[in-house]
Structure formats: structure tokens, C-alpha cells
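Entry:
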Amino acid sequence: MPEQTIVEGETLCRPKENEEEDASGSESETEVNEIVDDQQDVLSEYPDTETRIELMHSRLDSLAGLGLERFRALEYFGCRQNLIKDLRPLSSLTTLLEVDFYDNRLKRVDEGLEQLTQLTSLDLSFNKIRRIENVGMLTQLSELFFVSNKIQRIENLSTLRMLTNLELGANRIRRIEGLDELVALEQLYLGKNKITKLEGLGKLTRLRVLSIQSNRIVTLEGLEDL
């Protein structure tokens, strides 16, 4: 069994390539007024055979007018730092392996995501999501990011047995639970929540990194089985 490590002070969400460190999600009034009107033109230069699309900071407020259904081979779709509220238009992109909607205006995980059964990485950090839901069919996921949302409970993850990295930092979680079936989990980030006790970790025998800084834990107990 690999050596276990508790990480205090670990960065909760490591910026991906070319990402600015500050992703507050705020938009000035001028920027909001400049939201793209004719969104069909946004992807006009991409061929139908495109496998990777990145629309970072494009002031998009909807996916509905992008004509996504023509991309039958798409593997990566990144839409960081936009104004998207609805992910249902993604449901036709069943070849997707990675989806990144970091820093948008999502309030829930839409049902359409469950159609993307080949996904290995899903990033919905820095949104306004209140509940983990509609991810049960994504059994190929190895990475799942819900950093800085409004989530209060760890739930609906029991089928994600290939998950190796789960990031739930900066939410409103009070209890560590719902992780027993995540037998492949190696990294778990729970910093900046409202957790008072270390529990629910005994089945995570492959866990190498546990980030729990900035919670309400007084004593380090409950790690005996790791």
C-alpha cells in the first residue's frame, strides 16, 4: 500500500495551461453588454472533424446556437470563463473525453451530461452549483472538479469507481461521506469547507493526497485505516 500523505495548504485548483490565476468570474457591465450575438459564427472556422475546441473568455451566454451537433469526433470541449448557464446542448457530443466549464454561471449539473459516457475529465469549478447530481453514468471519469461552488453534501458518486482525483474545495460541505465505493481514489481535496471531523475515509486504501486545510477540524482522528 502506498505511503499516505495529508496535505495542508495545498492549492485547491491548479490552473491549467494558459489560465490566469485569478478566476473570480466577475464581468464588468461593458463586457456583459458585449456578449456574442451571432453565436453560430463562433465555430464557423472549425471543420466538422475537429477533435478539440477551446472557447476561453469568449463572453458566450449559451451553447444552443453554436451548432455543436456537427462535431462528431470532438474529444475536448473547453469553455472557461464565460456566462454559460445550461449544459444540455452538450448531450449530442458523445465522443467527448474532457469537458471544462470552469468559471461560468451554472447552477446545476444538467441531465444531458449523463449522455457523455466516455468522459474521463469533468471540470465544473467556480460556478454556483448546489448539488452533485447527474454524473452517475459517467463511469469512465478519472478526474472530477467541483471547486468553489455551493455544494453542501458529497453524494451520487458511488458508480465512479475509476475516479482517481476528486476536488471539492471551497464549498459548504460539513461531513465526509459517500466515498466508500471510490476504490481507485488517490487524491481528495476538501479544503475550505465546514468539516468538523475526519470520517468516511476508511475504504480509500489507495489515497495518497488528502487536502483538508481551512476546515473546522480540531484533532486529527479517523486516519487509522489509511
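Residues 170 and 192 are 4 Å apart (CA to CA).
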